[in-house]
Amino acid sequence: MRTNTDGLILKEQNIGEKDKLVTVLTRQNGIVRAFVRGAKSLNNRKNSATGMFCYSKLSLYKTKDSYIIDEAEPIETFFGLRSDLTKISLAQYFSELVMTLVQESEPSGEYLRLILNSLYFLANNKLPHEQIKAVTELRLMCMAGYMPSLVACERCGEYETDTMYFDSENGLLYCEGCVSSNALFALDITLVRSMRHIAFSDFEKIYSFKADANSLADLSYVTEKYLLSKMQRSFKTLDFYNSVGKL
Ligand SMILES: [Zn+2]
Q1: Which of 67, 134, 166, 169 is 20 to 30 A from 13, alpha carbon to alpha carbon?
Q2: Distance 225 CA to ligand 1 centre (A)
Q3: Mean pLDDT of all residues in 62-86
Q4: Which residues are placed with Cβ below 5 angstroms of ligand 1, an ion?
């Protein structure tokens, strides 16, 4: 059976001397693993269109137990990612997140839209890295069914106090009067507003908020801790991204 779809290449592995196996986030079929026959042959047009982080039009052929990419034509290659180790490591982390959270055969238009936007902002230096990371992490968690409870204090319903406290394990928020554990993250209210913005805004607006570098670092730290505690695992690509930042 043949399907035409668009998709973003998240992973590339060589198979023998000529073929490769790619993992793709497709609009129609969720995460798909597909062979590209002859990709490594000289002048194969499919090779660049099935390279890492390439967003392409794909013609997929489904055999009994695998997919084959018949045709591939690039739409966007995100060339700007390739010159910078920090950018590439963050993009690899986004790929690993998507491969973990999105199921096979699940229609994935919303996931695709999020990751394509994040890669666009990253490749074209449109926003600080920490901002792109925080938006991607938190919105992805919300889309995957792990929306934290950010509307008001969990205990008394207070909407805002100057500082609020976030329980990253349970995704709950507490006000100044109700916080009972010093293990929770103290968040300036502007940071809580940024998290609400990312979680609750219409998609078109999720990247557009302003915060200084310190706040963005805190935001990115909190969204990361929340994601890791919900996923109950580590991500090698995230460890690498964080180690690159310290070089
Ligand atoms: Zn309270």
Answers
A1: 134
A2: 22
A3: 92
A4: 153, 155-156, 158, 175, 178
